[in-house]
Specification:
single chain; about 50% strand
Amino acid sequence: MIHRLLPRLAIATVASISLIFVAWLILARQIEERVLAWAEMRRAEGYTVAWQTLDVAGFPLSFELAFTAPRIAKDGWTAEAAILSATLLPWRPDKIDLATPRLAVAGPGASGTLDRATASLLTEGGRATRLTVDGIAATGRLPTEDLGRAARARLVIDRFAPTTTDWQTESLTGKVTLWRAEAAQRFVSQLLFAEPFDLDLEGAIKGPIRDLAGWRDAGGTAEVTRLVLAWGPLKLDGNATLSLDRQMRPLGAGTAKVQGLNPVLDRLVAKGQVKAQDASIAKLVLGLMAQPTAAGGSEVTVPVTAQDGKLFLGPVPVATLRPLIE
């Protein structure tokens, strides 16, 4: 009896696997067709969408798309890589996981790279609704000048509409997080502290951002809803509204809760940017304004201003602001 059942069971198993494989091949072909249709839709909207080859693998539990030399661009914004993998799970058709050894991104007057980049893309109706990108060894340039690097970086984009024509409409919203970031060597002498810093910035850009000068001239603004900076003894948690002045330097104002202002003042005195007597007066005044923190320290809430190429915490200039484009 068993001897007669075994061949039948083997035949049934082979047939089942064959059916699953055929079904997977059909779905893989449909996914490839959807990718091609999506690319055509974006091209009709003015995007450049291109790649050299596209292969689909992942049988039996997933669909893994491998692109070589993928590139997407529009209105001066470009993202490209040498190779890119995209993984889709049948039970999560609205989510795509991406990975590439190196991602290169460029926009109006700026560019950057991210190594060992991974991303999660959420979609709805064929359109992206949220993009989260993580990676290491992040670098930035503005436009051809090295800004520095971060050991790790995360970018979250909730909205990207660079062609919006309404200056009250958000063309870009999201969040940037940097861990152990360091400025390029040429900026080191201008910095308050030599240590790497951690930065968490969340906000939105209003108005079309095809080019920075046009954005500035038409009244574009950047709303920083929260900026958290940990840099040596300095801890800052604030918000601001920013634009650019005629020399393309940051211009704006906000408020911040600050810890570690005394070491900041001492550093400014050492650099010759603040007189010792003025620093002593500032410490006294700020000390009277300070409030205790839950951790047992103290913090002071001060206005933050970017004006005339200087960054001010209260009345104290703490940094020189360079033009974004020279």
